[in-house]
Amino acid sequence: MNDIIKAMIERRSCKSYKSDMLSKETIDKIIEAGLWAANGRGLQTPVIVAVTDKETRDRLSKLNAAVMGANNDPFYNAPVVLIVLAPAEHPNRVYDGSLVMGNLMLAAHSMGIGSCWIHRAKEVMETEEGKAILASCGLEGEWEGIGNCVLGLPDGPLKEAQPRKDNRVYYL
């Protein structure tokens, strides 16, 4: 089996992380893979905000938990959050951003790094505090949060994959 298909089959969401920070080189390699995702008309509109500062990461976690109505860390202690955003007016924003998210998670897996797609990026980035976080790194205007890709070293084994359901493919 080729390495790409093997990674697609074996990758699992990680829901428990060590607090050890990843190297900038590792984060940059994962980001690069995200930037090479397929995208509509080759416009390359999604952007990635890499959050490695613990204070900002914790602010984002609290905002995300508030949207969810919870009081826990929805980022599972992961030290890195990659926020994928796309211009709000772009018709392919969700599709293009989702492909970026998939590439990020597959790249992380290929490097032995745990990852998980955490929802509520859209709602968090619509808040005044979310907009202020974006403005602090130079992102002005209307951006839609597509997803948060959390990264880190897994703190324990990942769950086994569930068997694939039958009757999900139809040929014409």
Keywords:
alpha+beta; NADH Oxidase; 6 helices
Structural class designation:
alpha+beta
Unreliable spans: none
In helices, the fraction of residues equals 25-40%
So, CATH architecture?
Answer: 3-Layer(aba) Sandwich
| Overall strand count | 4
Q: What is the helix/strand order?
A: HHEHEHEHHE
CATH class: Alpha Beta
Strand order of the largest sheet: 1-2-4-3
Number of helices: 6
Distance between the amino and carboxyl termini: 27 Å
Strand content: 15-25%
Domain count: 1
Question: Radius of gyration, rounded?
Answer: 16 Å
Mind telling me the CATH superfamily name?
Answer: NADH Oxidase
Which helices and strands occur, and which strands form pairs?
Layout: H1 3-10, H2 24-35, E1 47-51, H3 54-68, E2 80-87, H4 93-110, E3 114-118, H5 121-125, H6 128-136, E4 143-152
Antiparallel strand pairs: 1-2, 2-4, 3-4
Helix pairs in contact: 2-4
